[in-house]
Design a protein that fits this description.
With 686 residues, the protein is α/β, with parallel strands linked by helices. It has five domains: 107 residues, BRCT domain (Rossmann fold, 3-Layer(aba) Sandwich), CATH 3.40.50; 219 residues, DNA polymerase beta, N-terminal domain-like (DNA polymerase, domain 1); 55 residues, DNA polymerase, domain 1 (Orthogonal Bundle); 120 residues, Beta Polymerase, domain 2, CATH 3.30.460; 71 residues, DNA polymerase, thumb domain (Beta Polymerase, domain 3, 2-Layer Sandwich). The chain contains 27 helices and 14 strands. The radius of gyration is 35 Å and the shape is elongated.
């Protein structure tokens, strides 16, 4: 048998297993680079940055620029800031067109004017121009997650013909924003400035030495530093009032910051909330900050950093804005001196802004947030005094009682016709439940919040599982009736029934309908009846009459429930209950009659206290509080009994002495002493 010898060179050499074979190391960069260079599948241009690669599109529901085409002037993306804007607009659905004939919007760089636009459009032979806006327009649309009104002056180009501004500040083509997209609006982070007060204790009656030291501290208080605004790119016009309002600048009140000014001497007291972070957002507001991507934050930061106007020193700007102070009489700083008729502000150019801010104030009032409620009310009072529309953050910030946070919200309202923070508040399930419980008679914030904490969400939950007072039980049983406003005509009919019954007992007793009815309101929440008589000096002189009146009206089935009243035999001055208007021929005797429960209050007022009582029980609430605050600043005290002087208060404003009565009988005389212009009841709306 022949054997074939196999040469050693053809045999595979025995291989020893090395540790590197069982656990291979990644190839070196040199090997990788060499392989890529030799690979025919790799395009040499891939080593360069792909400027022409399209950005990653947002989900369809977030594409606010869908079906829109933007033509940019200059028509290139050489500048880094412009490239960022173009890519961000494309990310939200916009088409970057290089043909002006196909554009829906012409976006112009800030340093150009309308002549540059005409050069481009004239070459293209355009008869009807697309919407012409500056570079801030796409940024604001992305910021607010909706198409804002392009005709606003802040988006116009220098030299651009005036555009008729619509009443609604929202683009008609704006698609409805989803719940997810609204949450992504950036809100300002919590304020961390250690120089701003965290609280203001309620002091007692200050000594003269304390007053002087307070004044010196006020004059030396440094201007608070705000954190970065919510990326509202105001550009070069950030500190300039629009052209159309140049004349109106004379009407805009300036901030007062002079230590020698009379207002500065009182600012630690009457404006005690001024320098607090009144609008500092809670932790639940941070959801919108987290919802905004890092890329968006970087985009806006890069855009701002690339422009000189956004690097100005904040202190210098604040100092410049405060120059040109406008002097105002001390008493005119108070809301009671700015009150007017009910519809006096209907034609105010800032009516829509005031309406939205009022909704925010109402929300904070419901949740018992006194600080923010006060801040919003002061801002609204300031806006009501303006004769021109306040459109930008800087215009608002120049005004007294408006801080940086609320100024930003004012610009957001003007720009988008809405406020994201308000939408968040209204969408909170707990707020709807809170409103439901607060409308029960005898339930305040503390009780309502306690029920919510216990898991109650409906009226049935409260009835079945909560311990109720008799008044609260009535409030739930007649919930709909007691929360239905009473027409003015019905208030008059209810008052006539009471006057007729009172005349049978004592013809000299006078019944006056107060509250919103006396201010001329078309409807009221309840009916307030002031019971008085000539020659009376105390409520005890009228108590016996009230007992007889209530007994007679209960026998007539007019009064159907007692909710709160003073004990029998005491000199108490009130009676709260419910009434039902009986059938009256020619008024409510048709088939639609229903015994509707209404809230009614009787208030005993002797003749010596009628002036203070008429002010107190006429309102409105803000007017009354302003009157009492003004009296306090003048060393006096105003309540429902009259105006007093030398009234002392201890810690936490506890009463030490009643003081000496200055005026109680004459309502008009109290106005005169306080230096407030007389206002008829229908002129006391604040």
């Amino acid at each position: 048998m022949n054997e074939t010898v196999i040469p050693d060179s053809t045999r595979p050499a025995p291989k020893m297993l090395r540790s590197s074979d069982s656990t291979p190391l990644p190839p070196s960069k040199r090997l990788l680079s060499g392989a890529s260079e030799q690979s025919p599948s790799v395009n040499p241009r891939a080593k360069k940055r792909k400027r022409d690669s399209g950005p990653r599109l947002r989900p369809e529901e977030e594409q606010i620029f869908k079906d829109l085409s933007f033509f940019y002037i200059p028509d290139n993306d050489i500048a880094p800031a412009r490239r960022l804007r173009i890519n961000k607009a494309r990310e939200y659905g916009a088409i970057w067109t290089r043909d002006v004939l196909t554009a829906t919007h012409i976006v112009v760089e800030r340093n150009l004017d309308y002549k540059d636009v005409e050069k481009v459009t004239s070459k293209a032979g355009l008869n009807c121009l697309p919407k012409v806006v500056n570079e801030d327009y796409p940024v604001d649309c992305i910021q607010f997650r909706s198409l804002v009104d392009h005709s606003q002056k802040k988006y116009q180009i220098p030299g651009q013909p005036a555009v008729t501004q619509q009443v609604a500040n929202v683009d008609a083509s704006a698609p409805p924003s989803s719940e997810e997209s609204t949450k992504s609006l950036q809100l300002k982070p919590k304020h961390s400035d250690p120089r701003r007060w965290d609280y203001v204790p309620r002091p007692g009656t200050p000594l003269r030495s304390e007053e002087s030291s307070q004044r010196s501290v006020v004059g030396a208080t440094p201007a608070p530093m705000d954190s970065q605004p919510i990326a509202l790119d105001l550009g070069q016009d950030a500190t300039v009032v629009p052209d159309s309002s140049t004349k109106g600048k004379e009407h805009i009140e300036r901030r007062v910051d002079d230590a020698k000014d009379e207002l500065s001497e009182y600012i630690s007291m009457m404006q005690e909330f001024k320098d607090l972070p009144l609008d500092k957002e809670d932790e639940h507001d941070t959801r919108s900050v987290a919802g905004r991507s890092v890329a968006e934050s970087d985009l806006l930061d890069e855009i701002q950093d690339s422009e000189e106007e956004h690097t100005r020193d904040y202190k210098a700007k604040r100092s410049r804005l405060r120059s040109g102070r406008k002097e105002t009489k001390f008493e005119d700083r108070f809301a009671c001196n700015q009150a007017g008729e009910k519809d006096a502000n209907a034609k105010n150019p800032n009516a829509r802004t005031i309406e939205v801010l009022q909704s925010m104030a109402s929300y904070y009032d419901r949740v018992n947030d006194h600080w923010r409620t006060t801040g919003y009310r002061k801002a609204m009072t300031t806006l009501k005094r303006q004769e021109v529309k306040i459109c930008t953050e800087e215009e608002a910030f120049r005004l007294p009682h408006i801080g940086r946070r609320i100024a930003q919200k004012i610009e957001e309202i003007v720009t988008t016709n809405k406020l994201q923070r308000l939408e968040y508040a209204e969408d909170e399930p707990a707020d709807a439940v809170l409103q439901l419980f607060l409308q029960i008679y005898g339930v305040g914030n503390k009780q309502a919040e306690q029920w919510i904490a216990q898991g109650h969400r409906t009226l049935d939950d409260v009835v079945q599982r909560a311990k109720l007072t008799p008044s609260q039980t009535i409030g739930i049983e007649h919930y709909d009736d007691l929360n239905t406003r009473i027409p003015r005509r019905e208030v008059e009919a209810l008052g006539a029934v009471v006057r007729k019954a009172a005349a049978r007992i004592d013809p000299e007793v006078e019944i006056i309908v107060g509250g919103s009815y006396r201010r001329g309101a078309d409807s009221s929440n309840d009916i307030d009846l002031i019971v008085t008589k000539c020659g009376t000096e105390s409520t005890g002189d009228l108590r016996q009459f009230l007992d007889k009146l209530v007994g007679g009206l209960e026998s007539d089935k007019f009064l159907v429930a007692r909710l709160a009243s003073s004990r029998s035999g005491s000199d108490g001055s009130k009676w709260h209950g419910c009434c039902v208007l009986p059938r009256i021929k020619g008024f409510n005797d048709d088939e639609s009659y229903r015994a509707t429960w209404r809230r009614i209050d009787f208030l005993l007022v002797p003749e010596t206290e009628m002036g203070g009582a008429l002010i107190y029980f006429t309102g409105n609430d803000i007017f009354n509080r302003s009157m009492r605050l003004l009296a306090s600043k003048k060393g006096m005290r105003l309540n429902q009994r009259g105006l007093y002087r030398d009234a002392l208060r201890g810690p936490q404003r506890n009463k030490v002495s009643e003081g000496e009565l200055v005026e109680g009988r004459d309502e008009r005389r109290i106005f005169e002493i306080l230096g407030v212009k007389w206002r008829e009841p229908h002129e006391r709306w604040c």
